TrEMBL record:
Coiled coil: none annotated. InterPro entries: 6-PGluconate_DH-like_C_sf, 6PGD_dom2, Mannitol_DH, Mannitol_DH/Oxidoreductase, Mannitol_DH_C, Mannitol_DH_CS, Mannitol_DH_N, NAD(P)-bd_dom_sf. GO terms for molecular function: oxidoreductase activity. This is Mannitol-1-phosphate 5-dehydrogenase. Belongs to the mannitol dehydrogenase family. It comes from Curtobacterium citreum. It catalyses: D-mannitol 1-phosphate + NAD(+) = beta-D-fructose 6-phosphate + NADH + H(+).
Length: 429
């Protein structure tokens, strides 16, 4: 039994939600809140959690070693297919927050996620459950607005739509914590780790860093005191979304494409390569000039990323990061270029951005077996094809020349690097 208030319903419970939402909620002060968790569809995760009273071990994996704590925030776990339980808990007046981690696919046309949310909201309206907040924790720009559009788009009843518009709020948020997949070795290692839950079969492994920036758009709806656990409550998440996209995600893409060209397998290995590190610093310099945040805050974010990327025990593979470049590069790299040109049309494309785009071009043309991206140009593409896929408005002579020169530099440096390549090692993510 638990004395936690079951005020949060979460859809899509997985490793990230348990390392982020549940961890932050566990560390708040004041009234202890609990989470009723639903899987995507499969009952496996719910059954595993229920078998150990929904408690689990969170392993924080630093370069110096592991720390463990038992998280008890989840008060019940259900299969996502349990529609009866879903409608019941969303309709309950005790529930005031519904959170989601369903990946970008969950918001797209054809996903059943919006329909499931609408079904729950319809039950709540019928039961008189009162106002409620729906909160996306997925890596989408303006995820609150994206979620609102998806929910309203799936609502066919005009009376229900009017109720949603009046009584449901959709705060945006920015979340960040690298959470690799748990391995059999991680589970086996718990026996020797102080603080771990005895017999835990579903621990979560995560990095020490965690961040959550949350829009203050609850309009009086009750929520946990997340700010007491370090959550940053702001009027507008946009600058923080940009900071994450342009610094963390942008450099991840650059390291993926450039690092793979230079024979690396992981973020840590690529970041240890002076050529890759210099390109990352260039990209960060360009992004820093466009970010609407204090310089000291941007500098602190960069320093934190250096430490995070260098952690060899969080094995983040470049091949995984490299997928979907045609969707990722426009918001991670091209957006900075557009801000740069908007501020100063004569500035041209920066060397960091040119290197990132050139590295992607070489990735799709010289490493087609590593490409996982329906929107990528083919293996015989030229720089114009690349720009057509991610930034047709930037297909100018100056930009083309800069990207072509960057590609030439990458080819020359990669050829030299491969003659002295070494094997990357680390813990599987």
């Amino acid at each position: 039994m638990t004395d936690r208030r079951p005020g949060i319903v979460h859809l899509g419970v997985g490793a990230f939600a348990r390392a982020h939402l549940a961890w932050y909620t566990a560390h708040t002060t004041g009234e202890p809140w609990g989470i009723t968790a639903f899987t995507g569809r499969s009952p496996a995760a719910a059954d595993a959690l229920a078998a150990q009273d929904c408690r689990y071990t969170l392993v924080t994996r630093a370069a110096s070693g592991d720390d463990a704590e038992v998280v008890d925030t989840i008060v019940a776990a259900h299969a996502g297919s349990d529609d009866t339980a879903w409608r019941h808990v969303v309709a309950s007046p005790a529930t005031t927050i519904v959170t989601l981690t369903v990946t970008e696919q969950g918001y797209r046309c054809g996903s059943d996620v919006p329909a499931r949310l609408v079904a729950g909201l319809d039950a709540r309206r019928t039961a008189g459950g009162g106002r409620i907040a729906l909160l996306s924790l997925d890596n989408l720009t303006h995820n609150g607005a994206v979620l609102r559009e998806a929910v309203l788009g799936a609502t066919t009843d005009p009376d229900l739509r009017a109720w949603i518009e009046a009584d449901v709020v959709f705060p945006s948020s920015m979340v960040d914590r690298i959470t690799p997949a748990t391995t059999d070795a991680d589970v086996a290692g718990l026996a020797a780790l102080p603080g771990a839950l005895a017999g835990d079969r579903v621990p979560v492994v995560t990095e020490p860093f965690a961040e959550w920036v949350l829009e203050d758009h609850f309009d009086g709806i009750d929520r946990p005191a997340w700010e007491t656990a370090g959550v940053r409550i702001v009027d507008d998440v946009t600058p923080y979304e940009q900071r994450k996209l342009w610094l963390l995600n942008g450099s991840h893409s650059l390291l993926a494409y450039l690092g793979l060209q230079r024979g690396h397998e992981t973020v840590a290995a690529a970041m240890d390569d002076p050529v890759c590190r210099a390109a990352v610093e260039q990209l960060w310099d360009e992004a820093a000039r466009e970010l609407p945040l204090p310089a000291d805050e941007v500098a602190a974010a960069r320093a934190a990323l250096v430490d995070r990327f260098a952690n060899p025990r969080i094995r983040h593979t470049l091949r995984q990061i490299a997928s979907g470049g045609s969707q990722k590069l426009p918001v991670r790299v091209v957006d900075v270029v557009r801000h740069r040109l908007g501020r100063d049309p004569s500035a041209g494309i920066g060397p960091g951005a040119a290197t990132a785009i050139a590295a992607w071009w070489l990735h799709v043309t010289t490493q087609p077996d590593l490409v996982d991206d329906d929107g990528a140009p083919g293996a015989d593409s030229d720089v114009h094809d690349v720009l057509r896929a991610i930034a047709p408005d930037l297909d100018t002579t100056a930009v083309v020349d800069a990207i072509t020169a960057a590609a030439d530099d990458i080819r020359a440096a990669s050829t030299a690097a491969r003659t002295t390549s070494s094997t990357d090692e680390g813990v599987h993510a």
